[in-house]
Structure formats: structure tokens, C-alpha cells
Design goal:
The complex is a heterodimer of chains A (483) and B (325).
Chain A lengths: L5 E5 L9 E7 L6 E2 L4 E7 L3 E5 L4 E6 L6 E3 L3 E7 L2 H4 L20 E4 L14 H7 L12 H10 L17 H9 L23 E5 L44 H16 L2 E9 L1 H18 L6 H14 L5 E4 L2 E5 L4 E3 L1 E3 L4 E3 L2 E2 L7 H16 L13 E4 L19 E16 L5 E16 L5 H16 L9
Helix pairs in contact in A: 3-4, 7-8, 7-9
Chain B lengths: L1 E4 H15 L3 E5 L15 H5 L4 E3 L4 H13 L3 E5 L10 H15 L6 E6 L14 H5 L5 E3 L4 H13 L4 E6 L7 E4 L12 E4 L4 E5 L3 H16 L3 E5 L2 E3 L3 H11 L2 E8 L4 H12 L9 E5 L8 H7 L3 H13 L1
Parallel strand pairs in B: 2-3, 2-4, 4-5, 5-7, 6-7, 10-11, 10-13, 13-14
Antiparallel strand pairs in B: 1-8, 6-12, 9-11
Helix pairs in contact in B: 1-6, 3-4, 7-11, 8-9
């Protein structure tokens, strides 16, 4: 080649909790010319489906992962021979870095059965040979060999529970056998569990260490990247479903799979408790009714209840910061900033995305209104960037918009609390005036349900946090409103 | 029981069978007065006479055709191709005539073609080949590729008694290098029964002929290096071949290398690999690997020939790669 510069394309890290990505489609093939920032591959991760821009201008020299392959983040998935005009005029180089891999001279032929044999005359090795010979190929984790598939089925095992010692972390027959022989215990070094700290806390975060403080040598070293959670016990394999008359078979799509995995893992990890409080929203309802047209005119945004509730929640977090935290082993990271997750139903309520409003604590009602509308729209049109779904510290979900009255939501992973906003309904309630006289009135009432992780947050703490939200919403200061 | 060379075992087998069965006779180039290019039949003409140990003209076609005719008349001819490479001249007699005779007419053709084969002596492209793959493709022929002195004798006895045309590949590199215990007397064994050369649990090498020893050396190095336990299956005969033994071993270790000295494409290893993929797919934990000579003629130059022939280091590298898969 005319140029010696080679640039690797790696599976990008799409958010802190994402450990792997799936190749959806290569938009370029080996030999194709590509411009910097032009899309080279489409990928699908736990968080998002997205396009990966090329890091360089040049010729696609190698493609190291097939469509459908799931590879860990930072795995090399392609190589670009960087350069401008000169390289482009040449035929694509044989897809190899190592000249000795090209059998130009007679040598003992040693190939996997599946790959093409080298012809007597020099020929470019096939892609299959390439990857077979590539020691760096780490895409094996997801490859399940026939014998492993059979053993998993026979013993009802979940492959994710078994540490892999094969090439690229592939689970081998021996790994499965060792797992079975060990009574379901991992024979090899178990992968780090989810709760191990992944990185040092940023300056904004406060580390709360439970007593007794860990000995220095007990402090886990920062791992380079988050690892996939390892279920504690093998999960029994379900027989494959088939649809009979009157039934419909639905194959989980990527989003569904992620939701399923995360929901299950959260329930397996966090100690879920839900506290419910009733809020008199009459004041907010009246305020909103009064200000809605003005808001539309002045700011061009549709004023909903969510910004009120979000603002009240953020203020309460300031007083009760432990609901805005992350539990890692016996450590909690308490966060002074609020990255507010907003659960948004998509695909006719058959899917869910959680965009994150970063530094929501800095936003007033207008800012929050805009952010909520923008994020919801992006979620529905699936144009969220991975960053816009990463880093949430507290989440609000709003099934009340559909009339729901109460719920016990599941806490998103990496957080300790989620606030369920329920429907605002008119109810007869007892109200007490300033003289202590009771009367029955028709008021706009709403339940707020907070699910929280009892490993960190106690009931008294959660109740006081909720009480402050209630107080804010019931005594909204119109003077501060809208500014 | 005595310790004999591979060559001596073949020679003894031929002699014993000629003494036992007067229908057996030998024919080939320089096998009589000279005793054969490798001296396998040295002294035979003195013992059995010129009628039973016939020096032929330099015509493999004539030799093979004469054998077929004699077999049809009730004899048990054993012919020698001076080098297995020369069998291409007899291809038509073997493939068109001998192999199809029973199918066409119903008459058996009990001939044995002895084929000194294999490289390792800088014999070059015409004196080093392993042409068994051509004939394994032809229905109606049987093929033996003994690796040990005991099997060399047992299989030459079985080949002579077999009612079909048999190609008996005797590897030249084993002739005087390999010694082993050879039981006395009638030791004929059934075709199609493999021999477990050594037991192992991590992966299987399926091979035959001289490559059994290459596999053994590599397996020993692998065991010493990191304890990898290699099972070696010596097929002994490739037509018919012992599928059952190979599939059982594949099921046990789940990783298989097929090793032969013949060249790669359409070599007999392809048949073994394909059969494992077809019939033992659910037992596999890795792709079946072939280690063979490359698709070129056998080079003269000693360094090139060494590069051409699968060496223990090549097999060791294959073992390591497959074990780590």
C-alpha cells in the first residue's frame, strides 16, 4: 500500500453500563473507500441502535466481525488503511497484515475445514482463514459451539452464568463440564460481579462508606470496563415456544431483550420497597390551566404536569440526596447532580426508552419543559444518541398519563430510586382551613409511588423525601413560577 | 514374537502367505534377481522360483493387467509398483478394469498392489507421493496404510486373502526406521478397524501411515508443555475406514485434527472431516482442522521438502490452536 497508516475501528462504548454491541450491518466492505465520519457500520447495543462513523479517511482494509456478531466494547471490528488519493487508486490489499500468511511458497497447509485451501499460486487468504489465525479475535464470547449448545440444553443452563476460558472468552465444552461438575459453581475465576466499582468517583460525587471501612487491600481495583452481570444460579432453559391457534408468537427484539434482562437483574440485585404518598395537585392544576396559553405563546412549549413534579423532586433530592445514588457492593456513590431519567413508552407501548436530562438541577420549569418534550420526541422517533440515554441518577415514570392509579416500578440499574407519577383525579377529600375547621371538598388528587433500594434507603428517609415533594407541589409559589 | 523392522514384517508376511497358499505369486520390476528396489523380496526367487517371483518389463499397465487376468483364473497375485508414484500408469487397469469387474461380471479380482509411498528422502515429485486419495474415491478398491510392523504383516496377509483388489501403501520412511513387536503366525486382521495409538481426552488426531509417528511426537511435546492430552487414532485402512472409532473419539474430545502426508484438496482428510461434520456435529466444540501437505508437487530440495511435509512442530501448533479454541 502507498501508505503505512492503519486505523482501527473499535466497538464504541455506548454508555457506562454497556459492555458489548452487536454488528447490525456493514455499510462498507473490504476494499471500499471511506471518508472520515462517514458511516462504516450500524450497531445495536443495550442502550441504542446507532451508526458508527469512520475514524479516518482511507480504504477499508479488514472487517473483523460479521453481521450479527456481538463483541465486547473496544474490540477491533475493522481496520482502515488511512490515506487520501494514492491509496484509493490501488486495488485493495490482501486482507492481511502478515505477509507470511500468504502462501506464496509451499508450506505445510494447516487450515480449518471450513476455510478454502490455498491454491498453489499465491492467493489472498479468505476471510475465514484470517479470523481463524487472528489471535486477537475476541468475538468468541458469543459463539456457542454445537456441543456447548447441546450441553446447555440438556442441563438447562444459562451460558451467561458460565465463565469462558476459550479464545476470546468463548465458553468451551470444558467450561460447561467444569460448571456442571462444580454443582453450578464457576470452576474458573469468576468474572467480576456487577457491584464492583468500575471507576473512581468523579469529583461531584460523594462516597459514603459503610462501617467498618474496607481495608486498603480490600478496595477493588478499578476495572477497565463494566462487566456483564453474572446471574447467581443457572436459569432453567425454557422449551422453545410455538404458537397454536389463537396465539401469536413474538420474538423479543433487541429492546425487549434488554428490558427483560435489566428488569430481572434489578429485581435480583436491589431490595425493592415502594412507598406511596397522596398529593393534592389542585394548586398546580389551577396554575397550569392559568399559565398554559401564556407559556405556549412566550416559550412555544406545551406545559404539562411533569416539569412541576420533576422540579419538586429535584428540589427534594437536594435535601434527601441518598435517593440519588448508586450502590456498589458495600459502597454508595451519592450524587450531587441530578441526571433525570424519563421513561418514555415507544412502539405503541410495546417498548420503553429512558432518555436522560443531564444536570436537571440547573433547569427551571421552562428548561425542564423543553427538555422533557425534546427527549420524548427523540425517544419516539428513535433518534436518541447513546449519551442521551446514559448516566441517569434518578428516574421518573408516568403511567398516570394513561389513568393508572398506583404502581410499584422497578428501579433502573445503577440507581436507587424511581418515582412513579400517577393519574390526577378529582376526589372528595377532607380539607382543613387555617382555623382548624374540616370540610369535604372536591380536589385534584394524585398518588406518587417511590420504589427505592432498601439496601441504602430506609423507609423513614424515603417518606420524608416524598413528604417534601408533596409539600412543594401543594404550596407552589406562583411568584417563582415560569422564571 | 520378535522385534522386526516394518520392512521385515512385510517381507515375512509375504513369505508366510506364499508358503501357505501356492496360488500366491509376485510380479514387479526388479523384484526377483535384484530383490526389489527396497529389498522387500530379497531371496524370494531363490525360495519360490522364477515362476512365482516374476521380474516384469517396465510397464505398470502390463503388471496390473496380468495380475487381474491371473486373479480371474484363480490366482492370488501380488504386484509391486517400484514407487507408488508409478501407479498412475496402472490407473486404467485398476479403476476401469479391476475395480469394476465384480460389479460388471460378478467375478472377484483378488489382487494386491504394493505401493512404496511417501517422502522424506529428497526423492522429488516422482518418488515421494501419497496417491491414496485418488483410489479412495474409486468404489471397488480397498486401501491399507499400515503404520506399525505388526499391522504391516497383519494387513498384507489380510490383503492377499481379500477377494477384492487391494492397494497396500507401505511408507518408505518407515521401512527400516520403525521397529516393533510382530506376533508370529497368522495375524490377519479385518479391514476397517482403527487402532487407538494412544488414548487422550483433550483432542483427537485422526491419521494413518507415517504421520502416526509425527502425531505421536507432537502429542508428546504438547503433553510435556502444558499437559494437553491427545488421542491418536491410526485408521490402518482408509477403504473401508473406521467411522465408528473416529466418531466415538470426536464425541469424547469434541476437537479433531485430521492429519495426512498427502496434499490438501480432496485428500482423504476431507472425507474424514466432512463425515465428522455430518455425523458428529453436535459433539463438536471447535472446527475440524486438517493438517496436510500443501497443494504442490513434492519438492526435491531438503529444506523445501521439510517445509512441505507436515512436521511435528506443525502438528504441535495445530494442537495448541485447537486446544485454546
Amino acid at each position: 500500500m502507498a501508505t503505512g497508516t492503519v486505523v482501527d475501528v473499535v466497538m464504541p462504548q455506548m454508555g457506562v453500563s454497556v459492555s458489548e454491541g452487536t454488528i447490525t450491518r456493514w455499510t462498507k466492505q473490504v476494499g471500499d473507500r471511506i471518508e472520515a465520519d462517514e458511516t462504516i457500520v450500524e450497531i445495536s447495543t443495550d442502550k441504542v441502535d446507532t451508526e458508527v462513523p469512520s475514524p479516518a479517511t482511507g480504504i477499508v482494509r479488514e472487517i473483523l466481525a460479521n453481521e450479527g456478531d456481538t463483541v465486547p466494547v473496544n474490540t477491533r471490528i475493522a481496520v482502515i488503511a488511512a490515506g487520501d488519493g494514492a491509496a484509493g487508486d490501488e486495488a485493495p490489499a490482501p486482507a492481511t497484515d502478515n505477509a507470511e500468511e500468504t502462501p506464496a511458497t509451499p508450506e505445510t497447509s494447516q487450515t480449518m475445514a471450513a476455510s478454502a485451501a490455498p491454491a498453489p499460486q499465491p492467493a489472498a487468504p479468505t476471510a475465514a482463514e484470517e479470523s481463524n489465525g487472528d489471535e486477537d479475535d475476541s468475538s468468541g464470547r458469543t459463539f456457542i459451539s454445537p456441543v456447548v449448545a447441546r450441553m446447555l440444553a440438556e442441563h438447562g443452563l444459562d451460558i451467561n452464568a458460565i465463565p469462558g476460558t476459550g479464545r476470546g472468552g468463548r465458553v468451551t465444552k470444558k467450561d460447561v463440564q467444569a460448571f456442571i461438575d462444580g454443582g453450578g459453581q464457576a470452576a474458573a475465576q469468576a468474572p467480576p460481579v456487577h457491584d464492583v466499582p468500575h471507576f473512581a468517583p468523579p469529583a461531584e460525587e460523594t462516597v459514603v462508606v459503610e462501617t467498618p471501612p474496607p481495608a486498603p487491600q480490600a478496595a477493588p481495583a478499578p476495572a477497565p470496563q463494566p462487566s456483564a452481570p453474572a446471574p447467581a444460579a443457572p436459569v432453567a432453559a425454557q422449551p422453545p415456544a410455538t404458537a397454536s391457534d389463537g396465539e401469536e408468537l413474538y420474538q423479543f427484539n433487541t429492546i425487549r431483550k434488554v428490558i427483560a434482562r435489566h428488569m430481572r437483574h434489578s429485581l435480583d440485585t436491589a431490595a425493592h420497597v415502594t412507598t406511596v404518598i397522596e398529593v393534592d395537585m389542585t394548586g398546580v392544576v389551577n396554575l397550569r390551566r392559568k399559565w398554559k396559553p401564556e407559556y405556549q405563546k412566550r416559550y412555544g412549549v406545551n406545559l404539562t404536569y411533569i416539569p412541576f413534579i420533576a422540579r419538586a423532586t429535584i428540589d427534594a433530592i437536594g435535601s434527601w440526596p441518598w435517593v440519588n445514588a448508586e450502590v456498589r457492593g458495600e459502597t454508595a456513590l451519592i450524587k450531587r447532580y441530578v441526571n433525570l431519567g424519563m421513561a418514555v413508552a415507544i412502539d405503541d407501548a410495546k417498548g420503553l426508552m429512558v432518555p436522560v436530562i443531564k444536570h436537571a438541577e440547573e433547569m427551571n420549569l421552562v428548561g425542564l419543559s423543553r427538555a422533557v418534550i425534546e427527549m420524548a420526541e427523540k425517544a419516539r422517533t428513535k433518534t436518541l444518541s447513546p449519551d442521551e440515554m446514559a448516566g441517569g441518577t434518578f428516574t421518573i415514570t408516568n403511567p398516570g398519563v394513561f389513568g393508572a392509579l398506583m404502581g410499584t416500578p422497578i428501579i433502573p440499574e445503577g440507581q436507587v430510586a424511581i418515582l412513579d407519577v400517577e393519574a390526577i383525579v378529582k376526589r372528595p377529600v377532607v380539607v382543613t382551613d387555617q382555623h382548624g375547621n374540616d370540610s369535604i371538598a372536591i380536589r385534584h388528587m394524585m398518588f406518587l409511588c417511590l420504589s427505592y433500594d432498601h439496601r441504602l434507603v430506609d423507609g423513614a428517609y424515603a417518606a420524608q423525601f416524598m413528604a417534601q415533594i408533596k409539600k412543594s407541589l401543594e404550596s407552589w409559589d406562583e411568584q417563582a413560577f415560569g422564571l | 514374537m520378535a522385534t522386526k523392522t516394518y520392512l521385515q514384517a512385510i517381507s515375512d508376511g509375504l513369505r508366510e502367505e506364499m508358503r501357505r497358499d501356492s496360488r500366491v505369486f509376485l510380479i514387479g520390476e526388479d523384484i526377483g534377481v535384484y530383490g526389489g528396489a527396497f529389498k522387500v523380496t530379497q531371496g524370494f526367487q531363490q525360495e519360490f522360483g522364477e515362476d512365482r517371483v516374476i521380474d516384469s518389463p517396465l510397464s505398470e499397465t502390463a503388471i496390473t493387467g496380468a495380475c487381474t487376468g491371473a486373479a480371474l483364473m484363480g490366482m492370488r497375485p501380488v504386484c509391486e509398483m517400484q514407487f507408488s508414484d508409478f501407479v498412475s500408469c496402472a490407473f486404467d487397469q485398476l479403476v476401469t478394469v479391476a475395480a469394476k469387474q465384480h460389479y460388471r461380471v460378478g467375478t472377484p479380482v483378488p489382487i494386491v498392489v504394493r505401493l512404496p509411498s511417501g517422502g522424506g528422502f529428497s526423492g522429488g515429485p516422482f518418488h515421494s507421493q501419497n496417491p491414496e486419495g485418488f483410489f479412495a474415491h474409486c468404489p471397488g478398491l480397498k486401501i491399507a496404510c499400515p503404520a506399525t510392523p505388526a499391522d504391516a504383516k497383519s494387513l498384507i496377509l489380510a490383503a492377499i486373502r481379500d477377494p477384492n483388489p487391494v492397494l497396500y501403501f507401505e511408507h518408505k520412511h518407515l521401512y527400516r526406521r520403525i521397529k516393533g513387536e510382530v506376533p508370529d503366525g497368522d495375524t490377519a486382521i479385518e479391514f476397517g478397524k482403527a487402532r487407538i495409538h494412544q488414548e487422550g481426552s483433550d483432542l483427537t488426531i485422526v491419521t494413518y501411515g507415517a504421520m502416526v509417528y509425527t502425531a505421536e511426537e507432537a502429542a508428546k511435546a504438547a503433553a510435556e508443555r502444558d499437559g494437553t492430552s491427545v488421542e491418536i487414532i491410526d485408521l490402518r485402512t482408509i477403504t473401508p475406514w473406521d467411522k465408528e472409532a473416529v466418531l466415538a473419539s470426536a464425541a469424547k474430545t469434541s476437537k479433531v485434527i485430521v492429519l495426512h502426508e498427502d496434499t490438501h484438496t480432496s485428500g482423504f482428510g476431507a472425507e474424514v472431516a466432512a463425515t465428522i461434520a455430518e455425523e458428529a456435529f453436535e459433539s463438536l466444540d471447535a472446527p475440524v482442522m486438517r493438517i496436510t501437505a500443501p497443494d504442490t508437487p513434492v519438492p526435491f530440495s531438503p529444506p523445501l521438502e521439510k517445509a512441505f511435509l507436515p512436521q511435528p512442530e506443525d502438528v504441535l501448533a495445530g494442537i495448541e490452536r485447537l486446544a485454546a479454541y
